[in-house]
Amino acid sequence: MTAASDSDDPRVPIVCPDCETTSRIPLSDVADTIERHNEQLHDGEDVAAVDPDIVERIADLAATDLGLLEDSEPESESDSEAA
């Protein structure tokens, strides 16, 4: 990856409660950076991770995109037809 593309890569907040640190890592480097940090400083334990607020927000966006948070329309229509 070139330096120009690195500057365009979204930066993801990473937190480590044990080290009391937060940093922003390019999206393309997140998995490797977290794995390296945890291996070097926490004996491989999953301590450092993507900021939980970001994880929750992404999960909400994905659930909305997949329609998992919407009321079930077919059940509502069949319920009203049966009545």
Automatic annotation (TrEMBL):
Ranges for domain DUF8149: 5-72
InterPro entries, alphabetized: DUF8149
Tree of life domain: Archaea
Classification via Pfam families: DUF8149
Name of the protein this chain belongs to: DUF8149 domain-containing protein
